[in-house]
Amino acid sequence: MKIVILDAATLGADIDLSPIGVLGEMTVYERTDVAQISARLADADVAVVNKLKMNEMTLDGAKKLKVICVTATGYDNVDIAYCASRSVAVCNVPAYSTDSVAQVTLAMALSLTTHLFAYRAHVTSGGYTAGGVANCLVPVYHEISSLTWGVVGGGGIGRRVAEVARAMGCRVLMCRKQPETEFEGADLDTLCREADIISLHVPLTDQTRGMITKERIRAMKKGAILINVARGAVADEAALAEAIEAGHLGGLGIDVFEREPFAADHLYCRIMDRENVCLTPHMAWGAFEARARCVSTVAENIKAFFVGEKKNRIV
Q1: Fewer CB within 10 Å, N side or C side of the chain?
Q2: pTM for the full predicted model
């Protein structure tokens, strides 16, 4: 069995890939350009991939390919219909990063609601020392227990965030496709109008693409905080940047971007140094423990496929 890992750098240099390597002849590429994918998979039985596009163009030369293992829960980078037409199986890794993403979501929410960047800057700039006052209470912040937290997406990550928000005393609104019984259910428009903190935890699909529109951003409370740890394309990035510049949104926490990394002329470059903006490099999923679980599950997916079992199969 020939296994090719196309973009190992996305998993981190500290992660042991041997659970996959012991299953066959493994070739590891730290990075792969789009133009190299087809050739590098020419003799592969298994492709292990994180972010690279898997479609008719990139898989044209992969004549022996039997299974694609995505090292993520989301698989919007894979043309599922094309893979099905080629009888190429696709597997993902569900639930491995729930705690990691929830932790980063909470960290962003607490930092932005408490204005930690602003208070830290007051000290590091020398303003605190020069001021001669024992404390500084500007900008004003509020106890998180007084706020409404809107969670968009009722999967494992969204529910974990909702549990944490409730444990901290927030009123929690939950927007999901299915009827909600554990938390207070709300449609997206109601959630956008009523929540003080909004966090996004949905996969990128035809239904979720662009769901956070300019109109919904305008409908949010003045001073609301929006956190996106889902996919960049679920929100109007330009409208978010403009809402920060206009002072409508009180804070923005973004870990995912429509283009990764975003370009040097992206609107986010105009706001990234602001104290109420926290941009991170698609790292929320990547706690060490989560990445180790991911590799282990990919190995289990490969083993299951070659003994005729279906494990985490998308197609």
Answers
A1: N
A2: 0.95
Q: In what order do the strands lie in the sheet with 197-200?
A: 184-185, 171-175, 148-152, 197-200, 225-228, 251-254, 277-279
Q: How confident is the model at residue 122 (pLDDT cuts 50, 70, 90)?
A: very high
* pLDDT per position as a tens digit, 218-253: 999 999 999 999 999 999 999 999 999 999 999 999
DSSP states of the chain: -EEEES-GGGG-TTS--HHHHTTSEEEE-S---GGGHHHHTTT-SEEEESSS-BSTTTTTT-TT--EEEESSS--TTB-HHHHHHTT-EEE--TTTTHHHHHHHHHHHHHHHHHTHHHHHHHHHTTHHHHH--S----S----GGGSEEEEE--SHHHHHHHHHHHHTT-EEEEE-SS--SSSEE--HHHHHHH-SEEEE-----TTTTT-B-HHHHHHSPTT-EEEE-S-GGGB-HHHHHHHHHTT-SSEEEE---SSSSPPTT-THHHHTTSTTEEE--S-TT--HHHHHHHHHHHHHHHHHHHTT--SSB--
Q: How far apart are CA 119 and CA 137, in angstroms?
A: 8
> If pLDDT is split at 50, 70 and 90, which confidence band does 26 have?
very high
List residues with catalytic annotation: 231, 260, 282
Token pair in block for residue 215: 């109109």
| Domains assigned to the chain | 2-96+288-306 (3.40.50.720), 98-279 (3.40.50.720)
